[in-house]
Design goal:
about 50% helix; globular; about 70 residues; alpha+beta
């Protein structure tokens, strides 16, 4: 799953500086959105993406890192 989410992130971030978690999971059921969230955390751990959330319950912005494009 991580590879699939990585591919999706590359496609989304080629066109934009960032993508919100809400945009990424629009139309997904809760289980799929939760799985996607865990995969994004894994990608953040591996330094492929960076995430920013300004306050609790605020939107989560996902940004690419240099490693994503290698």
């Amino acid at each position: 799953r991580t590879a699939k989410v990585l591919d999706i992130m590359k496609l989304q971030l080629e066109e934009n500086d960032s993508v919100s978690f809400e945009e990424l999971t629009a139309g997904a059921n809760k289980r799929t959105a939760a799985a996607c969230f865990l995969e994004i955390l894994q990608l953040k751990t591996w330094d492929y993406v960076d995430t920013i959330q300004k306050s609790p319950y605020a939107p989560i912005a996902i940004h690419s890192t240099e490693k994503l494009w290698r």
